[in-house]
Amino acid sequence: MSFLADSCLMFFSQVLFFAGGWVFFLKQLFKDYEVHHSVVLLVFSVTFALSCTMFELIIFEILGFLESSSRYFHWKLGLYASLFVLVAVLPFYIGYFIIGNLRFVPQKRHIRVLLTAGAWLAFLYFFWKIGDPFPILSPKHGIFSIEQCIGRIGVIGVTLMAVLSGFGAVNYPYTSMFCFIRAVTEADIQSIEKRLMQTMDMILMKKKRMALAKREQLKQATINKSQSGLWGMISKVTSGSGSSENIPVLKQETEAYEELAKQLFLESVDLHNTQERIAYSKTFKGKYFNFLGYFFSIYCVWKIFISTINIIFDRVGKVDPVTRGIEIAVNYLGIQFDVKFWSQQISFLLIGIIIVTSIRGLLITLTRFFYAIASSKSSNVIVLCLAQLMGMYFVSSVLLIRMNMPQEYRSIITQVLGDLQFNFYHRWFDVIFLVSALSSIGFLYIAHKQAPEKTVNGY
User: Fold this and answer.
1) pTM of the predicted model as reported, rounded to 2 decimal places
2) DSSP secondary structure letter of residue 137
3) Taking burial as the number of CB atoms within 10 A of a residue's CB, which of 66, 118, 123, 294 is the most buried?
4) Is the Cα dihedral 361, 364, 366, 372 positive or negative?
């Protein structure tokens, strides 16, 4: 194919990716919010399109699709565009919208732009300093080299990937395996709901007593104000001071009952969800995910073990897992087949799965995170921050996916990314993954122990 035809194909695919980011933005992130700024939608979609383009080029590299010179050109173009968006465009607009939400800042355009420029320069300073503690670059790199940006983005992105991977490797088996599901019966749910209704009745009774006491006090104050002299004093002594209720004590008791009702309601919701999980576990789909849970449990244990070995012995693999597995099959098992052909096919399948699951998993995480913290006022800033994290995540994915590719397919990626310390990123991923996984195990263990000790019978 000619360079023009290759460029047209890449442009068409980028338009499709841009449209995908646009639809995801409107149908998922902002479906409950009004889009006030089209620039937020545009920047998010551009970041998504550039990120997917890099993954597309990885697939093309393995398949040998497009001319080598065309792939190199579009690698360079996409990478420079991604770095410009991540270092210049997104931080500037994030600062602009944050400053716009500050009440004490005059909302004049030129003042906001000047303050945003100052905030962006501060971001550049801290972005530069973040790379100082890490051995990410060779001494020969200049200040304005592409390696300087990629190296620092890689530290942030790899950290994010390792944290999500560590938590996901532990959380998925915990949420999908039957052995971690508590036994819940209708009697348990009815007992909690009965206690909740009794608590609500107590709250209603306490509030009614407070209302009557306040009304009695108001009535007594009106009577006392209308009466005066000796007869008023005699009437006050003989009739008492009004209601005998202690309103501060009633208020304190009501607040305690309201807190108890809140806890009972949350426990009731949890029991209903657990009951639904038990019913779901008996379906074919539930049993399938239970099997996957066991598989990922084995993977999690293996990954924790191999990460520990890599950290202790400062070990980084030189050969991709596919080629290594085929070499073992050929050398030790005596299986005869075309190593180069099958390594290409299996690598294509493996990396395709990694790419699809990475994009899907990150988008699901971004959606949940957005709904957890977003509001009508802060939604634009949050979306831009999520776009920043998404771009860094995908650039870092290219750094790590490179190790899963056969040696002959790594060369162009190495040329494009520059002379980076790739081994450092793999060691750093292992360290953060291990910390994240062990922390997640501890957190889920404590959460599970706080629940009743019963498990579902038969699993």
Assistant:
1) 0.67
2) B
3) 66
4) negative
Q: Who contacts 173 (Cβ-Cβ below 8 Å, separation ≥6)? A: 293, 294, 296, 297, 300
Could you tell me the sign of the dihedral formed by the alpha carbons of 412, 413, 418, 421, in that order?
Answer: negative
What number of CA atoms fall less than 13 Å from residue 324's CA on the CB side? 8
Tokens read off for 396: 């870092």
Q: Distance between CA atoms of 360 and 363, rounded to whole angstroms?
A: 5
What is the Cβ-side half-sphere exposure of residue 337, based on CA atoms within 13 angstroms?
A: 13
Instruction: Please answer whether residues 45 and 22 qualify as being in contact, where contact means their C-beta atoms are separated by less than 8 angstroms.
Output: yes
Give the phi and the psi of residue 137 in degrees, each rounded to 5: -130, 160
Helix %, strand %, coil % of the chain (to 5):
80, 0, 20
Rounded Cα gap, residues 323 and 347, in angstroms: 8
Q: What is the pLDDT along the chain (459 residues), one digit of tens a residue?
A: 577 888 888 889 889 989 988 887 777 666 655 555 778 888 888 988 988 888 888 888 777 777 888 888 888 888 889 889 988 888 898 888 888 777 777 767 778 888 888 888 998 888 888 777 777 665 555 555 677 788 888 888 888 878 877 887 777 777 777 777 777 777 878 888 888 888 888 888 888 888 888 888 787 777 766 665 555 555 555 554 445 667 788 888 888 888 888 888 888 887 887 778 777 777 887 777 777 777 777 877 887 888 888 788 777 655 555 555 655 665 666 666 555 555 555 655 655 666 666 666 666 666 666 666 666 666 778 888 888 888 888 888 887 777 666 666 677 777 777 767 777 887 888 888 888 888 888 887 887 676 554 444 444
Q: How far is CA 406 from the centre of its chain?
A: 30
Residue type, 318: K
| Cβ neighbour number for residue 434 with a 10 Å cutoff | 20
In DSSP terms, 420 is beta-bridged to: 137
User: 202: which 2 tokens?
Assistant: 């107590």
Q: Is 420 helix (H, G, I), strand (E, B) or coil?
A: strand
Cα dihedral across residues 39, 44, 50, 52: positive or negative:
negative
Q: Is 17 exposed, middle or buried (CB count within 10 Å of its CB: 0-12, 13-18, 19+)?
A: buried
